[in-house]
Design goal:
The protein is of the alpha/beta class and 250 residues long. It has helices at residues 3-17, 22-29, 33-45, 75-86, 101-109, 123-129, 154-160, 186-197, 240-243, and strands at residues 19-21, 50-52, 55-57, 93-97, 116-120, 135-139, 143-144, 151-152, 165-170, 174-176, 180-183, 199-205, 217-220, 227-229, 248-249. Keywords: DNA-binding, Transcription, Transcription regulation.
Length: 250
């Protein structure tokens, strides 16, 4: 594989999953970690991604990046998902919005006249919610990730154990009919488990490119999810395998 092809593949992986490990990239591309590390450094130098310890993060996911608004991967699809998700909301609902680029689009699209109490563990989502005149925003604190600006850790999990919201809207790195929702980060998994446990109903916001993918740490089975929202129409054949599960598809 030529260097240009390899770096294109690296960018695709980073943009799709927001954050990836060098070890996973090396395994996927069948090259050494040193080769991947050099590629990632070059892509960082070209301002196409952000190099972090042991991996890389997309510009759109790193909310502190000044290029963020111009570098959200599949933004049109994520906006379409957010528009569908908004239809689930009713006045005076108590909800929780997870972190990530799709969840941030949901926060942006909340109608200004909609009255909500909204918990979030994402600093960018919280800042967006403050723009909504009829949303009471409650930030769940903890150890903030420098990459995503999302709170996690024991304090976050403890705070989540004391609430029960009507809906939680979550993202995922990977989703599969057999393996469910998975991530590469154990701490992220523990936080997402706590979010699901704090919810009467859980709504997964997921672009279709993540369907039928998996990683090493499991968040939950798909039957734990009440609704899955993608940018696809519910009758799209790409969703056929998910229709056999006890899950609403929007």
């Amino acid at each position: 594989m030529l260097k240009e092809e390899r770096q294109h593949s690296i960018l695709n992986e980073v943009e799709l999953h927001n954050r990836v490990l060098l070890t996973d990239l090396a395994e996927k591309l069948n090259v050494s970690i040193d080769t991947v590390r050099r590629d990632v450094k070059e892509l960082d130098d070209e301002n196409l991604l952000i190099k972090v310890h042991g991996g890389a993060v997309s510009l759109g996911f790193a909310n502190h990046s000044p290029q963020r608004n111009n570098n959200v991967y599949a933004l049109d699809k994520k906006m379409a998902i957010a528009k569908k998700a908004v239809t689930l909301l009713r006045n005076n609902s108590v909800i929780l919005i997870d972190g990530g680029t799709t969840c941030l689009e949901l926060a942006k699209l909340l109608p200004p006249n909609l009255k909500l109490t909204c918990f979030t563990l994402s600093l960018p989502v919280a800042m967006e919610l403050l723009r909504k005149p009829n949303v009471e925003t409650i930030f769940i604190g903890g150890t903030l990730s420098k990459d995503s600006q999302i709170a996690m850790g024991p304090s976050t999990i403890n705070a989540l154990s004391e609430i029960k919201v009507d809906y939680s809207f979550i993202g995922t790195g990977y989703v599969d009919t057999e393996f469910g929702l998975t991530e590469f980060d154990w701490d992220v998994v523990q936080t997402k488990k706590a979010v699901i446990n704090a919810s009467k109903k859980t709504v997964l916001l997921c672009i279709s490119e993540k369907l039928n993918s998996q990683h090493r740490f499991k968040t939950c089975h798909l039957n734990v999810i009440n609704t899955m929202v993608t940018e696809l129409e519910p009758w799209d054949t790409k969703l056929d395998a998910f229709k056999n599960l006890n899950i609403q598809i929007l």
